[in-house]
């Protein structure tokens, strides 16, 4: 069975600085998708970034980028130039290409400090 | 586009009562999902519907039933609510089962 681990329950970063959130996963699949979702205090789940396992190039989305290490089963999220609006829970998630279910990690609570 | 909408936003139930959580999407998505979110446990899949007319159990289906009423709507029913079902419930949808899911705003349920 697939599992997703986020080893940092809480993190903080100064505004305008860079922060990296960690995520590791366990799977025997070769092809799959990985996601980072953001959940601000409003509780809405918002997709931040998505990575296909067959792509070697790391996904980027404006200030958000990932470091995808397939062999190490690691999928970290880097937030550059942190903004107050980045304060949220961040969930790492895994999904097989042939539908099974999305597996979410327990989340990391990120606080951006002015 | 409203995206994914959920009703109600908040509900208090007594143990043993029943209720239905409603979810609708206007993005012409084929797949829809129900999750529950509990502190420290992330999101767990309750049921999903890969396409209109089909439903399947997820990780934590016990105590719940679902209905895929049509392509737009996917409801979650608690027949006899229990305190263990106190949680925040999220509905989500995706165009295909292996594509990005879009989430609704959530329903906060308190069972006393």
Give the helix/strand layout.
The complex is a heterodimer of chains A (114) and B (112).
Chain A: E1 3-5, E2 10-14, E3 19-21, E4 24-26, E5 32-39, E6 46-52, E7 60-61, E8 64-69, E9 74-79, E10 88-96, E11 102-104, E12 108-113
Parallel strand pairs in A: 2-12
Antiparallel strand pairs in A: 1-4, 3-9, 5-6, 5-10, 7-8, 8-9, 10-11, 10-12
Chain B: E1 4-7, E2 10-13, E3 19-25, E4 31-37, E5 43-49, E6 56-57, E7 64-68, E8 74-78, E9 87-94, E10 102-103, E11 107-111
Parallel strand pairs in B: 2-11
Antiparallel strand pairs in B: 1-3, 3-8, 4-5, 4-9, 5-6, 7-8, 9-10, 9-11
Keywords:
heterodimer, A: 114 residues, mainly beta, six-stranded mixed β-sheet, four-stranded antiparallel β-sheet, 12 strands, 0% helix, 54% strand, globular, B: 112 residues, seven-stranded mixed β-sheet, 11 strands, 50% strand
Concise summary:
The complex is a heterodimer of chains A (114) and B (112). Chain A is mainly beta and 114 residues long.
Number of E-state strands of chain B: 11
Can you tell me the residue ranges of chain A where pLDDT is under 50 for at least 5 consecutive residues?
A: none
Rg of chain A, alpha carbons? 14 Å
The tally of strands of chain A reads 12
Number of separate helices of chain A = 0
Largest binding interface between chains: A-B, 24 and 24 residues
Globally, the shape of chain B reads: globular
Distance from first to last alpha carbon of chain A: 41 Å
What's the order of the H and E elements of chain A? EEEEEEEEEEEE
Q: What percentage of the residues of chain B does DSSP assign to strands (E)?
A: over 45%
Share of helical residues of chain A: under 10%
């Amino acid at each position: 069975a697939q599992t997703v681990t986020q080893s940092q329950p809480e993190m903080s970063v100064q505004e305008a600085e860079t922060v990296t959130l960690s995520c590791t996963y366990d799977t025997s699949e070769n092809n799959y998708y990985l996601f980072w979702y953001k959940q601000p205090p409003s509780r809405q789940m918002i997709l931040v970034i998505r990575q296909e396992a067959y792509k070697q190039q790391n996904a980027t989305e404006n200030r958000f980028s990932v470091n995808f290490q397939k062999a190490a089963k690691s999928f970290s999220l880097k937030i550059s130039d942190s903004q107050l609006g980045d304060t949220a829970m961040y969930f790492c998630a895994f999904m097989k290409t042939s539908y099974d279910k999305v597996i979410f990690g327990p989340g990391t609570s990120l606080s951006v400090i002015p | 586009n409203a995206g994914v909408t959920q009703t109600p936003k908040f509900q208090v139930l007594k143990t043993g009562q029943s209720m239905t959580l409603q979810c609708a999407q206007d993005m012409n998505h084929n797949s829809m999902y129900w999750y529950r979110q509990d502190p420290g446990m992330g999101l767990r899949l309750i049921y999903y519907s890969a396409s209109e007319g089909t439903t399947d159990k997820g990780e934590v289906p016990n105590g719940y039933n679902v209905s895929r009423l049509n392509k737009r709507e996917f409801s979650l029913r608690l027949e006899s609510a229990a305190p263990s079902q106190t949680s925040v419930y999220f509905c989500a949808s995706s165009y295909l089962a292996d594509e990005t899911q879009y989430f609704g705003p959530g329903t906060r349920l308190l069972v006393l």
